[in-house]
Model the fold of this input.
Amino acid sequence: MKAACLLVCSIAGLSVGTAVSASESRTFVISWFAQATYSNEHDCSGGVHPEVEQIYFRYAQHLGVDAATIEGWRKKLMEGEDTQELQQLVSMRGRVDGKPVNPYTNPASVIDLQLPGLDGKYAYGFNLDGKGAQDPTAFEDPETHEHGVNHQLYRAFGCARAFRGSLQGRPTYWAWAWGQLKDSQPAWLITLSGEDLNRDGPITISIDRALEHLRSNSDGTPRAEMGYRIDPDPRSHNVFRGEIKDGAVTVTEHKNLHMLQNPMVAPQLDLKSFHLRMKRGANGYSNGFMAGYQPWHDIYFGLAATGFGGEEQVTGDIPGFYYLMKRYADADPDPQTGQNTRISVTYFFEVVPAFAAEKSGIPSHTVAGR
Done:
């Protein structure tokens, strides 16, 4: 994607409330958001997950369906015939006290098929826990070559067909989800403020939710330099200290990020130990990464909400993702059970320049504290 020219708004004599004197601000709207993936031929030694129909046959076998019936369903699927009995079985394959229950709202009632996780060397991200190369579960970033990268959600999802892809070849699930959300979910804005954004030095990074959804051109591509009003709801207002170094933007203050999101993906984006970097392209900042530790139950909520239709057509085995995230979760253990409640994640985003204003219509970069 080609980023449009950078929007530069110079305001003299005003300050931003995080101790960085701001004479210049640039706002961007996020035009693509997805898990950062780096799928390749050497990252799933246990193989990629079977197609969903094959997974359904495994569940049927576990539930006591005889081999002849399963083979009959297999032939019907190959010939394009109706398999309503199989659909009814798997859509209620959970068992509580021997009785069928919804497997998506009751994932622990379903047997764990022990689907393989990703075991490759590379993943995009950051050294969130400070252990570096000493962490045997960590990755190496294929771009920065930093060691000790924490991105356990990639281990959990990386061998699932719908989640495999690259920054350029978008994974099926994320392409589907973004296609549903971009024209209806309120847009997210990133504003950089500092004395001179063309030079290295400290800056303030604000991340906010807009009241409007992403503006698009007639061909579906994001429209640059459009105006957005910042949502005054404090649940989606975030300010971080950051810096520009060698042309790259990073967050230097790793507190929590909180954004209202969408139940289709997650009700909220809640990232503990937030990290961010944005890269400067030929025409300005065009993309970047954000990361942290996210409650994995929030992620599962979005998957489970798609139900049988989403599982069959897009995601693959939804209870399987519950067990994979439970297996690889790596932060905030529950004090009673010891089960980790958060999982390290890295998201890739693309941006285009935009204007940002307070709800009143006053440009946000003219208001102290932004």
